[in-house]
């Protein structure tokens, strides 16, 4: 009886996902490698022949990488500061980090429109202090998208790192100190190696988050700074180019799955 | 002539989480001595030790080592070794690399480093496990790695925080004699924190009994064991029967008993062994008797409250419920200067 | 140990960076002028009122709520038994099942929406709302399974066995013993799912149209041709609502444990 019950309980969920998700997505992806009913890589090649598309491709990867790097550095500093705080402060700080994650990305991103716009906060300060005669054009630039993505994804990195830091056995850092290690040495030789998994997990979350972002590039980048997902939307809505959409979909899925698989490999290989 | 004030704590006050953990503590340690800080949990012994290592901020007073004022110096500049209760081995480094860690930081050249590490591992009998990771080692082995790691850098002072408490009984005894041997061979000054009086008695040149952030009594193991000054220390060292002495009466938890003649201290304490069973001026009901192998332990109701007594198994047994005569002779009592 | 000043500096800067924008939006929502500006002058609540008056916002808000509650509920109905089976029975192919059940998170939402549009809605003539419902539920199942699995993992198996020995049926044991103990896990999954669904945009992008739209998408369209502070007002309201939901959940059950 038990032999049947187990799989039976999972059946509804699995069927639902198979019909409502896996199947449609697989068909869509297959369209990107099919021309006139036959397997063909020409849509993919066509994509990479188009300089505009290639530019978007590299920009997406480049920005995502930059966002990940920045989040790692800033995130580490923040995580170290949090872990050093008293337990009660720590709880409140983590709560403060989780809160933005729960707010709609639309709202979170729109705030930057107010801050970076021509009549926004930054320009208020810049023009007000006389640093520039005219308001700076900050919106619809890669910088704006970069800032928006960092604000969106930084909490993920920090939470990941805090968890990793808290898993270091209690007296390991004091032991290193007593043996003669200064701050730098302790961080690079002890703390960093022991939190490598957390860095990878956080890094993957941030990288895939940036890669597959839509709202932030849409609001802060518009059609001037296209990323893969905004490009996809444009291709469908504006030119109804299904094939191109399928290609982008494949690229996104491949990049996304690769990042996730890499994560599992590194994290799983070291987990206890 | 070894320095009598090799390590000096003068009026040390330490605060922890808003309350005072150690109050105005003064202690000197001779070079080459092994001192045991003994006391129940919460008495401040670990806090004091961490302050000596520089892992705890000092609220008042000073810490001096060989004349150098260490009080506010960073822990990595003190030249003091610390073996943690949890061993704190670096999980990502092999045994060899763990032990070499401190030497690398000192800039010891690779060849000399390898030799010293090999030596240290041989001393603790772990040469064959040099390239293992800590998680592949047993508790006893991890403890020895922690020890090797601390002594290979030749610290001027070695602190050990309940290093044997996580080991099983047999291993603990083995490691205990290992530690004693090591200390004698290397001549390192050691401070050993423990709550186990047997360990303290076996290892220490001098025992410092701590209570609630202050030193209750310090002296040689014999002094502490035979002549405790307070009922706190007495109970810690096995004097289960402690009484205050008022007007020739022993005042206990449940009442009073006539005191033996000639007593003049504030209190008296007896070990269970020191209670004479079978004859004597007092009477009591046997509440319990438990066989311990070599001896039998009795719990006897007396006019001053329950009394623990111990007799050889070969002596005539006393049944539970029977009335037995007993005596508390002055000759086997320890005089106390304070009772609580 | 970080020196205290450094710790405060880092935390202050990062928190201002992460949280500051919310205050900016809230302030901008109160601006009296006709275009977005900061700092706000002539403080007024008229833009906030305007938000409530826009017909399409009311409709899309309603739809968003419906999708969030319905989708999460269905995701739990499907997901809890699956999580239970995976934890207690370890059927063959557990790994594959687990992968499948968590797949929706890995694939970018925009692709899911597009795929559903072309291969479910158009061929089968499925109403958009149904497609939205399917899409959202599919997205939420991984969250439901993950959170409930974590709850189950913390619950010892032997309490169910004890119940069975005392006379309960297998199902009875589940209902009377396991369910009450994973209640807070289910509640946390519900809150997480609700918020995720409500804020979700990419999946709904292709499945929304005039009249049938979720609130965030409606906002995006609105933003494209409106430049007055009402967008800021809407954003601020949305942010407040999300935070309120989470804070209440935190109060009720220490929600951050499950995230």
What does this molecule look like?
The complex is a heterotrimer of chains A (272), B (340) and C (259). Chain A has 272 residues and is an all-alpha fold. Chain A has helices at 2-31, 42-49, 51-83, 87-102, 105-116, 121-128, 142-166, 172-178, 183-194, 196-211, 215-221, 228-239, 242-270, and strands spanning 34-35, 38-39. The radius of gyration of chain A is 23 Å and the shape is globular. The mean pLDDT of chain A is 86. Chain B is α+β, with helices and mostly antiparallel strands and 340 residues long. Chain B has eight helices and 19 strands. The mean pLDDT of chain B is 92. The model of chain C has no long low-confidence stretch (mean pLDDT 84). Chain C is built from eleven helices and no strands. The chains are: A mainly alpha (272), B alpha+beta (340), C mainly alpha (259). Chains in contact: A-B, A-C. The A-B interface holds A 169-172, 174-182, 185, 190, 193-194, 272 and B 53-55, 74-78, 80-82, 84-86, 88-92, 101-102, 105-106, 135, 149-150, 153.
Provide a compact summary of the structure.
The complex is a heterotrimer of chains A (about 270), B (about 350) and C (about 260). In chain A, about 80% of the residues lie in helices and about 0% in strands.
């Amino acid at each position: 009886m038990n032999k049947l019950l187990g799989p039976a309980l999972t059946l509804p969920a699995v069927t639902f996902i198979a019909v409502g998700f896996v199947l449609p997505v697989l068909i869509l992806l297959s369209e990107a490698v099919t021309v006139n009913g036959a397997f063909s890589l020409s849509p993919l090649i066509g994509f990479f022949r188009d300089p505009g598309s290639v530019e978007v491709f590299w920009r997406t990867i480049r920005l995502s990488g930059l966002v990940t790097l920045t989040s790692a550095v800033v995130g580490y500093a923040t995580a170290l500061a949090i872990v050093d705080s008293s337990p009660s402060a720590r709880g409140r700080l983590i709560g403060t980090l989780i809160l933005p994650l729960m707010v709609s990305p639309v709202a979170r991103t729109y705030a930057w429109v107010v801050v970076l716009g021509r009549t926004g906060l930054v320009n208020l300060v810049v023009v007000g202090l006389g640093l520039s005669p005219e308001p700076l054009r900050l919106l619809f630039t890669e910088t704006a998208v970069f800032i928006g993505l960092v604000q969106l994804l930084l909490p993920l990195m920090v939470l990941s790192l805090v968890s990793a830091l808290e898993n270091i056995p209690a007296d390991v850092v004091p032991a290193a100190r007593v043996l003669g290690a200064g701050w730098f040495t302790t961080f690079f030789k002890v703390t960093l190696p022991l939190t490598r998994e957390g860095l990878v997990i956080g890094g993957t979350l941030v990288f895939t988050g940036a890669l597959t972002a839509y709202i932030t590039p849409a609001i802060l980048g518009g059609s001037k700074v296209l990323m893969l997902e905004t490009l996809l939307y444009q291709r469908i809505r504006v030119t109804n180019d299904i094939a191109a959409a399928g290609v982008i979909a494949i690229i996104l899925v491949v990049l996304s799955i690769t990042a996730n698989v890499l994560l599992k490999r590194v994290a799983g290989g070291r987990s206890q | 002539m070894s320095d009598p004030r090799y390590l000096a704590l003068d009026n040390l006050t330490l605060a922890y989480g808003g309350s005072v953990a150690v109050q105005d503590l003064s202690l000197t340690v001779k070079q080459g001595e092994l001192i045991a800080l003994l006391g129940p949990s919460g008495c401040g012994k670990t806090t004091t030790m961490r302050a000596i290592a520089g892992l705890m901020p000092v609220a008042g007073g000073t810490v001096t080592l060989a004349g150098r004022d260490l009080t506010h110096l960073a822990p990595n500049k003190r030249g003091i070794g610390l073996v943690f209760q949890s061993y704190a081995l670096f999980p990502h480094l092999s045994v060899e690399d763990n032990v070499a860690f401190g030497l690398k930081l000192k800039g010891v050249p690779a060849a000399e480093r390898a030799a010293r590490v090999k030596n240290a591992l041989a001393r603790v009998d772990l040469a064959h496990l040099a390239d293992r990771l800590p998680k592949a080692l047993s508790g006893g082995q991890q403890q020895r790695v922690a020890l090797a790691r601390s002594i290979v850098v030749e610290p001027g002072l070695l602190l050990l925080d309940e290093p044997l408490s996580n080991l099983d009984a047999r291993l603990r005894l083995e490691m205990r004699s290992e530690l004693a041997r090591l200390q004698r061979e290397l001549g390192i000054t050691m401070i050993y924190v423990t709550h186990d009086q047997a360990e303290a008695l076996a290892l220490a040149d001098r025992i410092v009994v701590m209570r609630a952030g202050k030193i209750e009594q310090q002296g040689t193991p014999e002094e502490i064991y035979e002549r405790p000054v307070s009922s706190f220390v007495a109970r810690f060292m096995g004097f289960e029967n402690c009484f205050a002495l008022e007007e020739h009466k022993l005042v206990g938890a449940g009442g009073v008993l006539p005191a033996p003649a000639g007593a003049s201290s504030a209190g008296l304490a007896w070990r269970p062994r020191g209670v004479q069973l079978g004859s004597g001026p007092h009477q009591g009901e046997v509440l319990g008797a438990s066989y311990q192998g070599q001896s039998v332990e009795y719990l006897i109701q007396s006019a001053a409250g329950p009394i623990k007594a111990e007799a050889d198994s070969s002596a005539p047994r006393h049944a539970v419920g029977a009335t037995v005569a007993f005596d508390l002779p002055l000759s086997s009592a320890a005089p106390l200067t304070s009772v609580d | 140990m970080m020196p205290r000043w450094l710790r405060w500096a880092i935390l202050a800067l990062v928190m201002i960076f992460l949280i500051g924008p919310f205050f900016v939006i809230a302030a901008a929502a109160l601006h009296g002028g006709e275009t977005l500006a900061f700092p706000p002058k002539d403080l007024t609540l008229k833009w906030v009122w305007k938000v409530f008056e826009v017909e399409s916002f009311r409709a899309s808000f309603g739809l968003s709520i419906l999708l969030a509650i319905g989708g999460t509920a269905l995701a739990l109905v499907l997901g809890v038994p699956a999580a239970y089976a995976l934890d207690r029975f370890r059927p063959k192919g557990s790994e594959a099942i687990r992968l499948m059940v968590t797949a929706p998170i890995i694939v970018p939402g925009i692709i899911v929406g597009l795929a559903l549009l072309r291969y479910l809605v158009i061929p089968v003539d499925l109403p958009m709302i149904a497609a939205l419902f399917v899409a959202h539920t599919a997205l939420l199942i991984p969250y439901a399974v993950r959170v409930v699995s974590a709850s189950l993992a913390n619950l010892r198996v032997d309490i169910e066995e004890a119940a069975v020995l005392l006379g309960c049926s297998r199902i009875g044991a589940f209902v009377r013993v396991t369910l009450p103990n994973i209640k807070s896990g289910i509640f946390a999954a519900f809150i997480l799912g609700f918020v995720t669904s409500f804020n979700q945009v990419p999946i709904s992008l292709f499945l929304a149209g005039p009249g049938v739209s979720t609130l965030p998408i409606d906002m995006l369209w609105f933003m494209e041709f409106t430049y007055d502070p009402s967008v800021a007002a809407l954003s601020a309201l949305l942010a407040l609502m999300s935070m309120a939901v989470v804070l209440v959940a935190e109060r009720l059950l220490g929600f951050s444990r499950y995230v």
